[in-house]
Design goal:
single chain; 321 residues; alpha+beta; Metallo-beta-lactamase, Chain A; 17 strands; globular; binds fe (ii) ion
Length: 321
């Protein structure tokens, strides 16, 4: 669908959840923001650009907001189909975007060794299948750059870290519209039919809070994420930012309350299982996905001198100082 002149959203699906990929067109160049998995790059995207009559040769830039299978997995497939495509991403995310094996090891399988938390074989192979082989990135960005698509369409690159170190957003100032990828996540992810399916998956708490502030004060009239309904107008944007911030504050409080009541300490899995039901309405089977944000909270607590971790045991145990 076209949300305003020259700005389309390619509506896809990932695991029963919405996935919307922005396609922004100028007179000379077109940028796609995120490419979905390999199957989106082979199906939904070519179908959509065909439908609107955009030749594959006119798709010139792919900006990948962050390394995740549903945002970066299809890059190699899309480059194969669009010979002029230049891939760009945040400087800090380059390795994970270029090399799917690194993405799997450092993002999805990161919790195995110390926390004994990992995906079952079926889920793991689904993640691996969503990615192509290695795909070099043409240019890395740090925020502050502009992208000129011709015909006076100039887009601004914004650094929105927290869900990843290098997470990017694109601001179309003429239309006061921010395309933010997964930079802020409200109370979590909902399915296509509206039920809650997954908690927020930010990793770095302080950066995430700064990103929420940045988006709240950007002066945007419309913010467009990859898995959340478009927020339009000051009130809706402020409310979404507040719900994102509120989740962080509640999660932090619950973690400290739990550890205060358990002087023997707790593992990451125990924290996820005990607190999941207090934080959201996703299915209990998804509580361990809280490993992503909770490890961020625990690491922050250690840095602040408020928590300690016993790494002499497996899984490691966290305690309040
Ligand atoms: Fe995503």
């Amino acid at each position: 669908m076209e949300i305003y002149p020259g700005a389309h959203l390619i509506e896809c699906e990932i695991g029963g959840r919405p996935l919307r990929l922005p396609l922004l067109m100028g007179e000379s160049d077109t940028v796609l923001v995120d490419c979905g998995t390999r199957s989106h790059a082979a199906g939904d995207i070519p179908r959509y650009i065909d439908k609107i009559g955009l030749p594959a040769s006119r798709l010139t830039f792919l900006v990948i907001t962050h390394p995740d299978v549903d945002h970066s997995g299809g890059a190699g497939e899309l480059v194969r189909r669009c010979p002029h495509l230049r891939v760009m991403c945040g400087a800090a995310d380059r390795l994970l975007i270029e090399e799917p094996e690194q993405l799997f090891a450092r993002r999805y399988d990161h919790y195995r060794e110390e926390h004994d938390i990992f995906y079952d074989e079926k889920t793991a192979s689904g993640i691996r299948d969503g990615c192509n082989g290695n795909q070099p990135v043409f240019l890395t960005l740090k925020g502050g750059e502009t992208l000129n698509l011709g015909g006076k369409r100039i887009l601004e690159i914004i650094h929105l870290p927290g869900h990843s170190h290098g997470h990017l957003g694109i601001y179309d100032r003429d239309y006061r519209t921010l395309f933010y990828g997964d930079a802020i996540q409200g109370r979590g992810y909902q399915s296509l039919t509206g039920g809650w399916v997954l908690c927020p998956t930010y990793l770095y708490v302080d950066a995430y809070l700064q990103t929420i502030n940045c988006i709240e004060h950007l002066g945007a009239e419309r913010i467009v994420g990859c898995h959340w309904a478009v927020r339009q107008g000051e009130d809706e944007i402020r409310e979404f930012c507040a719900s994102s911030r509120n989740f962080v504050e509640t999660a932090d409080r619950l973690i400290y309350d739990y550890l205060a009541c358990h002087p023997q300490g707790g593992t990451l899995r125990e924290l996820c299982q005990s607190l999941g039901g207090k934080l959201g309405e996703w299915p209990a089977a998804a509580h361990t996905e809280l490993s992503y944000p909770f490890l961020g909270h625990l690491d922050r607590g250690i840095l602040q001198g408020k928590l300690s971790v016993d790494r002499s045991v497996r899984p490691v145990i966290y305690r309040q100082c």
